[in-house]
Design brief:
By secondary structure, the chain is mainly α. It has helices at residues 49-69, 71-91, 105-113, 142-147, 160-173, 176-179, 184-196, 206-222, 225-228, 231-243, 253-258, 262-266, 272-285, 298-313, 320-331, 339-354, 362-385, 401-421, 427-455; strands spanning 12-15, 21-22, 35-41, 99-103. Helix 5 (160-173) crosses helix 7, helix 8 runs antiparallel to helix 10 (231-243) and helix 16 runs antiparallel to helix 18. The structure holds 2-acetamido-2-deoxy-beta-D-glucopyranose and zinc ion (ZN). Zinc ion binds next to helix 8. It comes from Oncorhynchus mykiss.
Length: 468
C-alpha cells in the first residue's frame, strides 16, 4: 500500500503472471524460487480495532525483521525493482495502478514468523469474544481428514482458520464432543481463545500447538490408544497438547530464572513457563463461554484438571531424564490397570509429541529447525545484552542446523521413542525410521559443513548442541 501510495487498509489482490488471482495462504511458501506476483488494490474499508492491531503487529514485525536481517539491503533491492517495474508499467500504459514485486517464499515465511512482544499481562485476551465464533466453517476435504491422522501431514499448508477446523474435527472424530455432551459452540469459542493466547514467536506459536496436538491425534490413531485408555484420558491427552505452551514468551525457563522475570518470581523458579501455560489454560476454562468441561460434575472436573496439570508440567525438558527413567522402570512389566503406570505413559506421550518435529517428513520438519534457532538467537542476543549466561547451542556464532539437531535426535528423541516402541511396536516404521533418516541426513550435512569450514581455515565446529 505504501509503495502504491494508497491508504494502508486497502485490500490487495495478488495476481500471478497469467493474471489469475493467487490466494494469499501458506501454500505460496511452497512455490519454489521466485515467482512474479502482481499486486492490485481493490476496495477500501474503514479500519476496525482488529486492523489497527494488525497494523501494529506488522509494524513491530517489520522493526524486528529490520534489526535482525538488515532490512535496508532488502529495501533498496525492492525499491529498485519497484522503480524499474513502475517504469515498465508506465511504458506499457496499464490502465490500473499496479506494481509488481518479487516475493521470495523464504523471505515471506521469515517475515511471517517474526515478532517480539510480551503479552503476559494481557488480561483482555483471556476474555472470550462475546460474538458467536466467526471463523468460517472450512469444509475439510475427505483427503485432508484422512491425511490429518498421520505424522506425514503437511502442517505448513494451513492458515489459522483451517487449523482451528482441523482441531475441531479431531475432537469430533475422537467422539469427545458427542460422547461428553460438549457444546459445539463452546468448543469453537475455546479454540479461538486458545489461538489468541499463543504469541507470534518464531517457534512457540499456535502452529506449534497445532503440530503437537496433531501428532497426539496421529499417535492415538496409530497406536489404537482408544482401546487402552479411557475417553477421559483421551480428552486429557488432547487438551493438554492444545494448551501446553499457552502464552509462551519465546525465552526459556533458564532465561526466566537468570533474568529474575515476573514469571520466575511468581513460580519460585519451579518450571515457571509450564506453570504459566497451565494456569492460563485454566483461566480460559474459568470463562463460561470457553469451558468445554461444563457438562462434567465437580469430581470429574477435578480428575481432568489434575490430569492436564500433570501433563503440561511434564513438558519441562529439565525433567526429561527423570520422567524417561521412571517410564523405563515400568515399561518391561507395564500394567495398563495401574494408574501410576498409565499416568507415566501419558507424560511420555505428550513429551514425544512436543518434540516430534523430526518425526515428520524432511520438508515439513526442517523449517522448524530454522524457527527454533531463530528463537534461540533471540534469547542468546538478549542474554548477551543483559550479561546473562549464554548456552553455546543457542549462540548464533557457534550453532548450525546439523549441530543443533544431531545430538538431540541421537540422545533425546531416538532413545525416548525406542522406549515407547516397547509398548507400541507400530511406531518403529512410522515414527522412528524417519528419525533415523533425519539423523543420517544431518550427519551428512555436518560433514559437508565441516569440510567447507576446513577449507576456509576456520576452526571446526565441534559443538553438538541440544535443543528442545
Ligand atoms: C535454556 O536456555 C539456557 C541458556 O540461557 C540453556 O543453558 C538451557 O539449556 C536452555 N534450556 C532448554 C531446555 O533448552
Ligand atoms: Zn511445546
Amino acid at each position: 500500500c505504501t509503495v502504491l501510495g494508497i491508504p494502508r487498509n486497502t485490500t490487495l489482490s495478488l495476481l500471478d503472471s497469467t493474471g489469475a488471482m493467487v490466494s494469499i495462504d501458506p501454500t505460496i511458501v511452497k512455490w519454489y524460487e521466485f515467482e512474479l506476483f502482481c499486486v492490485v488494490p481493490s476496495y477500501t474499508f474503514l479500519p476496525t480495532d482488529k486492523e489497527e492491531l494488525f497494523q501494529n503487529v506488522l509494524t513491530q514485525v517489520a522493526e524486528q525483521f529490520s534489526r535482525a536481517f538488515k532490512i535496508n539491503e532488502l529495501k533498496t533491492e525492492v525499491t529498485n525493482r519497484v522503480a524499474m517495474l513502475e517504469k515498465r508499467v508506465e511504458r506499457e500504459s496499464h490502465s490500473t495502478v499496479s506494481v509488481c514485486v518479487f516475493i521470495s517464499p523464504q523471505r515471506r515465511s521469515s517475515l511471517l514468523h517474526h515478532s517480539d512482544s510480551n503479552f503476559l499481562d494481557d488480561k483482555k485476551k483471556l476474555t472470550p469474544r462475546r460474538d458467536v465464533p466467526s471463523y468460517p466453517k472450512y469444509h475439510l476435504s475427505q483427503e485432508t481428514v484422512e491425511a490429518l491422522r498421520h505424522p506425514t501431514f503437511d502442517v505448513w499448508q494451513w492458515e489459522t482458520n483451517e487449523m482451528l477446523s482441523c482441531l475441531e474435527h479431531m475432537y469430533n472424530d475422537l467422539d469427545l464432543v458427542k460422547g461428553f455432551n460438549m457444546n459445539p459452540i463452546t468448543l469453537k469459542s475455546w479454540l479461538l481463545c486458545i489461538h489468541d493466547n499463543y504469541q507470534v514467536n518464531p517457534f512457540h506459536n499456535f502452529r506449534h500447538c497445532f503440530c503437537v496436538t496433531q501428532m497426539m491425534y496421529s499417535m492415538i490413531c496409530l497406536c489404537s490408544l482408544q482401546e487402552i485408555f479411557t475417553q477421559v484420558d483421551i480428552l486429557i491427552l488432547m487438551t493438554a497438547a492444545v494448551c501446553h505452551d499457552l502464552q509462551h514468551p519465546g525465552y526459556n525457563n533458564t532465561y526466566q530464572i537468570n533474568a529474575r522475570t515476573e514469571l520466575a518470581v511468581r513460580y519460585n523458579d519451579i518450571s515457571p513457563l509450564e506453570n504459566h501455560h497451565c494456569a492460563v489454560a485454566f483461566q480460559i476454562f474459568s470463562q463460561p463461554d470457553c469451558n468445554i468441561f461444563s457438562t462434567f460434575d465437580a469430581e470429574a472436573f477435578k480428575q481432568i484438571r489434575q490430569g492436564i496439570i500433570t501433563l503440561i508440567l511434564a513438558t519441562d525438558m529439565a525433567r526429561h531424564g527423570e520422567i524417561l527413567d521412571s517410564f523405563k522402570h515400568k515399561v518391561d512389566r507395564f500394567d495398563f490397570s495401574d494408574e501410576e503406570h498409565v499416568t507415566c505413559l501419558k507424560m511420555v506421550l505428550i513429551k514425544c509429541c512436543d518434540i516430534s518435529n523430526e518425526v515428520r517428513p524432511m520438508e515439513v520438519a526442517e523449517p522448524w529447525v530454522d524457527c527454533l534457532l531463530e528463537e534461540y538467537f533471540m534469547q542468546s542476543d538478549r542474554e548477551k545484552a543483559e550479561s546473562l549466561p549464554v548456552a553455546p547451542f543457542m549462540d548464533r556464532e557457534k550453532v548450525t542446523k546439523p549441530t543443533a539437531q544431531i545430538g538431540f535426535i541421537k540422545f533425546v528423541l531416538i532413545p525416548m521413542f525406542e522406549t515407547v516402541m516397547k509398548l507400541f511396536p507400530q511406531i518403529d516404521k512410522v515414527m522412528i525410521q524417519p528419525l533415523r533418516e533425519s539423523r543420517d541426513r544431518y550427519e551428512e550435512l555436518k560433514q559437508i559443513d565441516d569440510a567447507m569450514r576446513e577449507e576456509e581455515g576456520k576452526p571446526t565446529n565441534l559443538y553438538q548442541g541440544m535443543s528442545t
